[in-house]
Each structure stands twice: as structure tokens, then as C-alpha cells.
């Protein structure tokens, strides 16, 4: 039953050698890896205006130079990540770059913050998309959390079906969104150029504004930079591209950069010319769309595709998180299970973990995840800074042909990213301080996991010590609860093992039962030695363990091995299990974890 | 850690032969077994007035004859249960009586409704007590559910500590409550007799009232009878009494009947003479206390002890439920685990189940369990009727000396109980209909469980068939993941068992790994046969199961037994488990439940 539901949801399992079919072409890759970055133009420009409005609407012309600053940063990041793609074609992005050039701990800082960041991406973007939808249909508002959770479940299922299937499905909304914004920006700018937009709506560029400060401008700049989150994704997901993967990835990255630049600057320009003032109720993009189109089909087209792309931005997290997890797991910093491919060749454990963790976040914050945005932006700019610093070191160390321009690009990127990171800490400390707590914790956890895996590998390596002594003989202990077929069955098996000795053990709770049982046993199997251990405290485990300890002590003197044979009922129906004392499970768990004995389970399948 | 917390909460384990020390004397038994019955005087009289007020306050004089009716019913019940105690000194009350005299199904109806009823008792009385407390301290009101749950947890813990300990602790509030009400009734009646209470406050007895009907009077009577819930408890709990248990139980029952009669009639009389009118905000008892004492210490004493006894009424459920469960479990109608005594010799599984189920009810109804009261009263009167009908049959069949008066007592009790039950269905059908659904469901469940236990016993009985064929030889299958100490260790054990054949099985996920591993194995243990099963779908279980099936088919032809040896890591710390693939657990569970193979687990304890 379970397995047919699974088939229906995620499809038939794929063979390992079908992996090539699951690779992405550029069009699909652009759609699923850039939805995060592109969706951020829906709130990035607004963030700039929200800072400037604290002075006055007259300060809005500063959004133009600030946008230019963001574009410069974007260019530096794109060029820089282009270089990372060619230098590290196996993916891993900031984590691998930082680890290889800066060392283990910077790598873990980058990896840890990205890992958390992708979880935040999913939670934040799905919540934002849900908000956009429930703003349009206010009657759905009370169900915000449930709707968001359903979206996460849907996206998780799509991703479990496999990369290409989710790409085919998700490509449409992304391209429709781009189309919608292109039409809006084109028509809007046409209106501006043909003088149909009144000039009074905007203060001319260069108008002096009282109260403006460098601090404020930097704050506006860093807020606007939150539109650049998601640029990292492609460099993490190179292995998902069709061959030649690095070339295709680099081209996709360039295309994404251009789209992002056009959309971002278009929206900033229109907001400026139309004199849009950010408000609580209506988003900037919505205001622009209303001014440009009026409340007609196109307005709703822009709104609808924006809502969709916000939800789908989550999908970027699903592409990048599992691959980053694979890299961390291969280096033994997170559990090994993240390296296992699922039925459909995706890294299912990573996909499912991401889904579960973001649902927890959505529920914990009751769907109001807006104030996680600064946290999330910081979590992106820390690895940006580290990866580009790493690339600087790489160029300086290796000095390949033409390294000077490369160094300049990465240095510019590193400096701007660092400044943005610092601005976040300085201007939004109340919102970003948790980073300073959870990052060290995550790194401690990575460290502990790594230490454990190293210790295990050390103990298992066959070369580390001489082979153990051979076993000279076996002693079998058989706990018996009564004279039944189950015991008969186990005894038959015990006898077939040609052990040196078989000891049946009975643990009565009442003093009187002792003799009665011994009497019965004598008639049943007089040739097998029976030991009865009266248990005044009604515990089976305690006297049994004590007895086994004694036997084991003696056995080890002559290199004998002790095996406990535990008979186990297997009822025909699952619910029947609660009708039986689970003593055999308890005995097994206790002995296995506490003592060095071998446990043999002899099943007894009930027929009705 | 866990076990020391357990020690702290419930105390050191007791030996089975210390059971005698855990028995109750009459004073303690009265306290813990009558708290339910006595607490119902806090709401019983009010229920009568609430029905009469639907006509007019002039009808209040009818409360006197109705109370006399309730006293008659009480007398019949007490006398009747006294006879049950002597006839069935091993407890079980209505369940045993109905089962033995009326047959299996009437017994199960009585047992099932009482079982549910004790859960309702706990939920309803704890909620009522919590309400009484939060009415006094309104700032606590939002925490109603949490407070109620904490009370249930406290009472559960006390009961896990053992019967006598909870009795010692709980006796004080019960006797203080009785004392408080005695003082109130004494002083109140003194005031009435000495003429200090104005005669205008009450209409004289016999005043004709327009609109009164027999139906209404019967409704008022059945409502008042809800004060008699809890009378059954002592007959269920006879085994908890000190020897001679039946005598002591009978005396305790008589004492409880007298106390209940005095308190009930006292409150009805005072309510009549003082002309108390039931209100939403203030209970009848609280109004009487205010009239008698004024708002002084005594008023708060009455209020406080009332709140306490309402909470403690739950404890009656804790005394009776586990013993009823033992009776049902011995007859194989509910899981056998209910017959096991815990560390402190109480039937812990019953106690814990009762606590958990009532917490679920409290949370599900958000602490507003008042409308469960009629349901709960019906659940009591159904077994009352059945048990007394059972006693009637018993007397008629056995005709012991002096059986006629006994028959008359039980017949009276049966008829009144039956009438009350019918009144509940007729006058409060909207509240009691769930009984008609859950009772059949419970009985169906009892039936299914019983059938399963019978089937199992049938299959296990050693006399049912000839002994199975002896095992001629063993074939051992050893799944190996790599060349490690863990495998070496398991192989050493396999060799010591002198099996006919040992087969190592490796399941690679990549076609290339196949040859590589075979090469390595040849150097490692060339004498052991290795089978590699390439798994294109990356499942270990599937190819392994198929292989085992093949081996088993061949083995069974010559009476060979197949054993699978599964090596298992035992990490030093619990959390390390999530860092390892739990393949061995999965393999074990799958093979054990689906196939008839023996599974041997060889532990490999990691040292760091």
C-alpha cells in the first residue's frame, strides 16, 4: 500500500545508469536555478525605497545611484562566480572554494551558513508567495500556514520525482514572470520617454536633500543587495547540467545576470519616474503595474506570475541544498545518508530534510517569515565574501596566465560583499544577531560528526591490528517463557548448531512457579539444562543480564562465545503486536547495546 | 538518567511479596474510593433545582420528595453492592457479576461502559476542580487546560507510587471536605430549627404548582441521580483491601452510603429552606455557605475543600480502572499487559493508560468537559442495571438460605436503575447518543482481541501436532558492505557454528564496483564463497531477499536451515546512530517479518 502511494507520487524507480537523462539543458536550468534570484526583484527595489522614505520622498532619486551600485555588485558577483564555475566544475560553490583556499573552518562557515540559508529561502519565499495569494483572496487568509505547508509538500514531491520533471513543470511560470515584467517595463519606459508620465511625479536627479548621510545610503544599498541572494545557486548545482557542464553553467549564469540586471534596473527606474511611494498594503511592483496598465488583465497577469515565482523561488533551494549536503557529507561533516541517491536519482534525503526543516520554520513563525529576510541576506553575503576571498588567494598562489584581471574581479567582489555583510551587522543587528549563535553551533556539530566518523574509520580499518582469536566453542542461552511450540522451535535450532552447551533460562515472578516449571521441563526436554531465576522485582531483563554476565565470564576464559537465542512471535497483522508483551524486543535491545553477546532471533510466524 | 528520574518520581521498586503492605485499611479506603461519590454532592442537588426552575421557584419544594427518591435508590444500590461484595470477593464488580449471571455480552457491555466511564470520571472531575480553582483566581483562567493536565499527571504519579502512598496523601482533603460540609449543614439546620431563617424564603411543601408533570419530576430525579456515580468503585477494588477484604469493603461501603446520604439530604434541605436559586456564576453549595457563614474563613474552607475533592474524585477512577482492566485482560478481552504489576506493585499499565486517555479528552474538549456529565451518568447506570439484574438471576437460580429479601433488594435496585437509564435516554438524548456508538465499537474491539488470543493459544499449544523435523544442517548468509573488522568479526562467528556452507553477499550500486570487490575479497577470505548482486535501483533489501529466497528453496529440500548473520555497529553514544545507515536494522526487520529465516545479530561495539 505504502509503496504504491510512493510510486504514484514520485514515479517508478530509475536505474543508476539513467542518470544522464536526468541532466538539465540551459533553458530548464535557467528556470529552476534562477527563480530565487529573479523573484527577489519583487522586493529588492522596494527595500531601497523603504530606507529612503525615512528621510523624505524627495530622496527617492538616490535610488538610481544606489541601483547602479547594486548592478556593479551584481556584475562583480556574476563574473566572480563564472570564474568559480570553471575553477570548480564539480559544484559545491562557496563551501568548496573556501575550504580549498582558506582552510577547513572558513569552508565550514560558508557551508554552514549556506545550508541554513537554503532552508530560510524555502520558508521565506513560500510564505511570501502565500501572502501574495491570500492578499488577492482575503478569505483564504486564516489558512496561510496550511497553504504554505501544502506548497512546500508539493515542491518537495516534485523534486523527489527528479530534477528534469520538476524543471519541465516549473519553467513556465518563471518565463511567464519574465515576460510579464518585460512587457511592463517596456510599456512603462515607452510612456516615460514619450512624455506621458507627468514630470512632477519625480524630483530631478541631483536635488539636494536635507538629512541624507553616507550611513543611510549604505543601509539602502545593503537592503537593495538582498535582491542578489540566489546568485550562488548555479555554482552549487553544476553537476546537474548536461555536458559540458561548466560551459553550460557559465552561460546560464550570464543569462541570469543579464535578466536580473534588466528587471532590477527597470523596476527601479519606473518606480522613480512614476513617483511610487512604498506602502504597507500594496507592493511597489503592484503599484507600477497599476500605473502602467490600469486594473486590467495585464495587471493581474503581473500579480499572478509574481506570486507564483515567489513560491517557486523555493525550488532553487531544492536544487542547491542536496548538492551542498553531498559535498559536506563526502567530507564527513554531516551524516553519510545525504550522499545516497533515491529511487529517482535525486538526493532524496537532502530533499526531504529541506522540506521538513522549512515546514518546521513556517509553522514556528506561523507563516510570518518576513523578519527572517535580513538573517537570510547575511547568510548569503558571508559565503559570498568567503568564496571570493578564496578565489583571490587562489589567483595569488597559482598565478595562472592572465591572473591579474581575474584577481581584480574577485577582489572587487570580495570587498563589496564584505561591506554589505558589515552593513547588515551595523544597521540591522537586532535582526541578524542569531547568525552569531547558530553558526558556531553548526560548526561545532560539523566538527563532532567529523570526529566520530574519523574514529569509526580508524576502528574498522582491517590493517590496524592483528586478527582476533578464533572461537573455540559456543554456549547458547535460551530464555523460555513457557512450554510452547515457539520454544520447541528455538530449541530445535539451538541443537542444530552443535554448541558445547545449551542452557534454557526461565524467569518466574512468583516463588511457587519455580518448582512447577522445573517439573514440566523435565517431561519436555530433560536433556537440556534448565536454570530458573526467581525475580522478586518482576523484571526479566535484570536477572537475565546478571546470569549472562556470569556465563560470559566463564566462557571467555576458554575462548567460548555466548549466543542468546530469542524466540519472537510474528503476528499476522501489525496491530496484533500491541497484544503481546514485547519482551523479546526489549531483551534484544538491552543485551545488544549493553553486552557483547550475539543475539539470534528465531521468528515464529503465527498463521491466524 | 531516565531510571533515576523514575526512582525519584515513583520510588524504589518493591518485591512481589511486599504486596500485603500495599493493602488499604478502612479509613484510607473510604478516603480514596469514596471521593468520587462524595464529590458529586457538590453538583447533584443543583442538577435537581436546575430542572425544577424551568417551571418556577415555587416548584422547589418538590426537591424534598425527589431527594427522598434518590435516597431510596442510594439505599437499594448500597445494599445491592454489599451483596455483590460478599458474592464476588475478588472484585470486578458489574463486569464479573453480569458476565457470570447474564452471559458474555452483557458482561462486556458492563465492563466496556465502566472502562470508558472511569476515563470520563478523571477528565470531568479534574476539569470541574480546575474550574473551581480558576473561578477563585480568574487570572489563571487561560491556563485551565495546562492546570488540568498537570493535575492528571500528579495524580497519575501518585498512583504509580502505590496505593497506600496515594491514600495517605489523599485522605486529608476528603475528610476535611466532609468536616466542612458537616459544620455547614449542622449550623444551617440549627439556624432553620431556631427560626433564624425567614419562612418567606421557601414555599411550603405541598403547594400546588402549575405545569408540573410526571415527566419533569422523573427528569429531575434522574438528574439528581448523577450524584450516585462512584458507588460502584468499592466493589471493583476489593482486592486492594486488607484482609478480610470483603468484610472491610462492605463496612466501607456502608460508611460511604451513610456519609453520602447525610451530605446529600443536608444540602437539599438547606437549599430548600434558604430558598437558593441556581445561577450560572455561583454554585448552590457556595450560596448556602455564604448564607450560613457569611464571607468568612469557613466560607473559603468549604469552597477550597470542594475544589480539592472534585480534583481528587479522579483518584477513584485510578483505583477502579486498573483492577477492572486486570479482570478484562485475564479474560483476554484487552491486551495482556494490563495484568502486569509495575515496580510499586500497582497495575502501572492501567494507571498510565487512564492518565493518557483522560489527558487526551481534556485537551480535545479544551477543559470544558461539563457536557460529558450525562454521558458519564448513563455509562454508570447501564452497568448498575446489568449487575443488579445479574444478582436477581443469581438468587433465583441458586436460591440460598434467605434469598427472598436479597432478591427484593436487587430487584428494586435493578428497576430504579433501569428507569433512571431510560430517563437519561428520553430526556437527554442529544447528549447521551454517543454511548450507542462507542459501546458497540468497544465490544467489537474486545471480541477481536479475544479471538486473536484464542487463535494464538491454539497455535502454541504443544499438544496440537507432532514435533517438527530436526534440522539437518545450516546455511549461513553474511551480507558484507566492505572489508572491515566488523565483517571479520562476523565471519569468525559464522565459522565457529560448523555450518554446511557460508555465503558472503555483497550488493554494489555501481556496475564497476563488482569486480573490484571480488578482487579484494579473494585476498581477504578466499575460502569463503562470495556472491555479488549488482543493484541498479540502489536497493539492498530487494536483491538480498530474492537471493535468500532462492537459497531457502534449495535448503528446505534437504531440511537445511538458513541463517542470516547481520553485523551491527553499536556506537558509543546514542546520537551517533543517526550518523550510520541503519541498513542492518532494515534488513533484520524486513527478513524477520516477511521470510522464515533466522537472523543473528553480531554486535560490533565502537570504543570511541
From TrEMBL, chains A, B:
Subcellular location field: Membrane
UniProt KW keywords: Membrane, Transmembrane, Transmembrane helix
GTP-binding among keywords: no
TM stretches of this protein: 48-79, 108-128, 140-160, 172-193, 205-231, 252-277, 297-324, 345-365, 371-395, 407-426, 432-449
Presence of keyword Transferase: no
InterPro entries reported in the protein's UniProt record: AA/rel_permease1, APC_K+_Transporter
Main location per the UniProt record: membrane
Membrane topology: Multi-pass membrane protein
Protein name: Amino acid permease
Organism: Paenibacillus borealis
Taxonomic lineage: Bacteria, Bacillati, Bacillota, Bacilli, Bacillales
